[in-house]
Specification:
Length: 72
């Protein structure tokens, strides 16, 4: 899904992959980031711990871009 979204808009994606143990350590919880699997757009946690459809992710990206004044 991310590669298709990259090709449709000027969007930079970052994939962070850690072991299950790394996601459950105190240091990770201190970062106040979502548990995997999750998708964040800007500071918004779009989904955490479940599947999501592509249209919902695109809508979150559009909202973020509008807030930053980067509309297509």
């Amino acid at each position: 899904m991310l590669s298709r979204l990259d090709s449709r808009a000027d969007v930079v994606t970052e994939v962070i992959s850690k072991t299950r143990e790394e996601y459950r350590c105190d240091e990770y919880f201190a970062l106040d980031l979502p548990l995997a699997p999750a998708i964040m757009v800007g500071e918004e946690i779009v989904v955490e711990g479940k599947d999501i459809d592509e249209a919902t992710v695109e809508a979150a990206i559009r909202r973020c871009m509008e807030q930053c004044g980067q509309e297509d």
